[in-house]
Write a structure and sequence with these properties.
Elements lengths: L2 H7 L15 E4 L2 E4 L2 E2 L12 H23 L5 E11 L7 H21 L3 E7 L8 E9 L2
Parallel strand pairs: 4-5
Antiparallel strand pairs: 1-2, 2-6, 3-6, 4-6
Helix pairs in contact: 2-3
Length: 146
């Protein structure tokens, strides 16, 4: 089953996006660079927002990223996940950013394979604040294989 078919089986849809202030997915050579996509969930991990909520927020960011990639590339097929950057709005004491960002990585593993095209480099960082008070922001770099 292709990544596109797997996404559709999960119920993910990719509606057409209107161009905005910034390019949500920019192509350079055989690479696709996504802008940071923020979660709808607002809040700070370690201060009322749970790891489970953060995990789901990171997954939701990844769904938004896939929508932008689909709109720029026309399909989720023929791609390799290269690098994921996950930013977590967290208190100074919170140290489980990696568990939050697993929400995005796990979705990419589900679509592209954990040991195949979905096996990616990653950074999971804590931030004092994110735009609009979002709990999570994620960006991804993909390689176009074909």
């Amino acid at each position: 089953m292709t990544p596109q078919e797997k996404a559709e089986q999960l119920g993910l849809t990719f509606a057409k996006q209107e161009p905005g202030y910034l390019n949500l997915c920019a192509k350079s050579g055989n690479l696709l660079f996504t802008s940071g996509h923020v979660s709808d969930l607002k809040g700070k991990l370690g201060a009322g927002t749970t790891v489970e909520q953060g995990y789901q927020a990171a997954r939701d960011c990844c769904v938004k990223i896939l929508r932008s990639v689909y709109n720029a590339h026309g399909t989720l097929n023929g791609l390799k996940v290269i690098k994921l950057l996950g930013c977590v709005n967290s208190t100074l004491e919170f140290n489980e950013q990696h568990l939050v960002i697993n929400g995005a990585s796990d979705l990419l593993h589900e679509l592209y394979g954990k040991t195949g095209d979905g096996f990616h480099a990653r950074s999971a960082l804590g931030f004092a604040q994110l735009p609009t008070g979002a709990a999570v922001e994620v960006e991804v770099i993909f390689e176009i294989k074909s």
